[in-house]
Amino acid sequence: MRMQRPWRNRFGRFLLILGGALLAFLAVTPGALAQVALPPAVSDQGDDIRVLFFVLLGIGVAVFVIVEAMILWVVFRYKRKSDDELPTQVAHNTTAEALWTVIPLVIVVALFIGSLVVLEDIQSAAEPGEDVVEVDVQGRQWAWAFNYAVPLGTELAEGLSEDPAETEVLLRDSSLVQPFMTLKLGVEHMRVMAREGDVVTVVRAVNGTVPIRHGRGDAVMRVFNGTDTVAEGRMQAADNTPIVTVPVGTMVRFNIASSDVLHAFYTPQFLYKLDAVPGRVQTMWVRVNETGEFKSQCAEFCGRDHARMIFSVVALSQGEYAEWFAAKTPAPAEPIEGDFGAEEEVEAEEGAVGNPVRGQELFFSLGCNVCHGDRGEGLVGPTIARTVVPLDRVIEQYRQPFEAMTAFPPEEVSDEEIADIFAWLQTVERPPDDLVIPSKLAESLEAGG
Ligand code: HEC
Ligand SMILES: [Cu+2]
Questions:
Q1: In order of start, what are the domains of the chain with their CATH numbers?
Q2: pLDDT for 108-123, tens place per residue?
């Protein structure tokens, strides 16, 4: 039987047309090729991964071309020329066998060593004494929060064991510590619940971190939420995309944690991603070498709104970053004299049902602050400080959320507890109108819907 040309056969023609259409599609669709190809690297680590990728690709292509060429050569050179003439039969060739064992072995060992060198390089920490910007990344269904820290000027007066039940911390000078502040020791986050003298009662491991042993003299940092959103007017991208801001040219250490399920911190231009694993803190070192906005996303399927769990990395020049950081850094609080109980922090207004003190605690322990900000000022979710939405409609919102809010079933938070949070939200200050992140729910109610 004669071999047919592919275009003579219907299936072959179909394949040719399909391939042509695909190539035409890639050629005319902006960005389609970029989706298929490796993204450009914007970090030193990414550059190394890119080099490794092209070395691997080069070796792969060379092997493919050599092997295919040899196959074609054999096919044509030793083609059966007539029915009664068999090609020479060879049973054994020591040289050939040695070659096809040694060559792949050399290639695999070279790939192994190359990968190991690059892996070691991208996972290595900053040099001792080198400047490091630390960003604590918290993933939650379905949002990201980016926390930064500043030194509080105090330290642990006594060590702290790994036992999470041990929640009393003795500080050397706690005059700048207030209830509901988040403190950071190493990578562990602790929320202050009350203060009495220099003894501070804390909830440990609140950022999805894990309680770790801390020694006497460990520096205590003050954590603040540095998540920007598009709503603040700095970037024009998708709605309310959380933004993590970093400087170029400085080592950045991302401490990646999750407060519920697996997520993954993925910026395509870093050419590297890392899972956010509940119960541990994962470290990613990046030195960004280009300013710009890099669209990023959660890359581990994590439930209903996984696809909306996007964020942006914004890299600023060192000067701009310093300005941004200074503007974000909370002003040092006035030193607080005397004993300070949580009761004084909030004062229920008339008409509020529920217990606002308990409400404030719940607001943090349930992670509402990740989306709505530490004072309900709005972040990924709308401003809910002094919301105009009535309590019964708010309860409905928890049970069957409108838009991308996590659902909170009655097992997780009772109606009474919602009333407590509601009561607290009525006591906090509402941001000025131009900073309010509008709530669609509140708007629809105001429009009489
Ligand atoms: C994953 C992010 C996310 C989390 C976590 C979250 N919310 Fe929301 N929340 C939203 C979004 C998004 C909306 C609805 C947006 C709209 O109506 O425009 C919303 C709406 C609301 C509303 C109604 C809007 C209004 O104007 O009053 C209230 C109240 C509210 N959230 C409170 C909470 C509380 C309390 C918690 C913690 C128990 C919480 N949310 C947790 C994102 C979140
Ligand atoms: Cu996710």
A1: 35-81+92-124 (1.10.287), 128-344 (2.60.40.420), 346-446 (1.10.760.10)
A2: 999 999 999 999 988 8
